[in-house]
What we know:
Blueprint: H1 7-24, H2 33-36, H3 44-57, E1 61-62, H4 85-95, H5 127-138, H6 150-159, E2 164-167, E3 179-183, E4 202-211, E5 214-222, E6 225-231, E7 247-253
Parallel strand pairs: 1-6
Antiparallel strand pairs: 2-7, 3-4, 3-7, 4-5, 5-6
Helix pairs in contact: 3-5, 4-5
Amino acid sequence: MIPRLSKPRRLFCAVLLVGTLAACAPRDGHVPDFARKPYEPFSRSAAVEIALREWRLFGEIVVPADAPSEIDAPADSAERRQGLWQRVGEYWWLGLNADQTGHAYTGLHDAEGRRYPPERDGAYAWSAAFVSYAMRMAGAGPRFPYAAAHHVYVNAAARGTDLLIAEDPARYAPQPGDLICVVRDAARPLRFADLPAPRFAGHCDIAIGTNGEGLAVIGGNLQDAVALKRLPLAPDGRLTVLVERPWLAVLRVAYAAP
Length: 258
């Protein structure tokens, strides 16, 4: 006969069980199985097609090569529209780990579900969450340093990981799926030789491919949307220098498949 536990004892066991389950739950348990395991090898084509899909969703916006990465959001900006603020929320939720600050943001709300005004847009910049989302959905698994700020994975690449290597833009020709990074703070003109560097305001786009017009890249939070830029290239495929913001680094991604 199994002895009956007293009510306090049953309560203790229930709390202990819940605590044990919580401790064992994966930090990225909210990520779909196909991305967490992943189902397919991490590939350039997956990263490129995911970025293109999100660009089409936002209306295939094209911005100048030297367009500001982040701007003050007007009240009717894309990231605040129905259907799109929720999509930005998915970048935060799926791109970041469940224990990271910001994973519950949307394009319109803070972590408590409160709307933030357009003038506070800069506090919820989602361009790094977008890159993290694309890498996660493409199958990077636990090897990518998912983050709400670009400097986290730029510095990781500068130190060198089995997935990311920082390349000098003056010497390396970007490939589709690589990350093209700049510094946003004009008062702090970092260069490749300065990496790794203490926390800095940066921006990275995903390289899509080249044509006669240069290198196409797609990034998040470009004029409050997922947008495409065409960057001029030298004849050997290297990025040419932009006057406003010199390139900081190209992050070469070690994809498992072409």
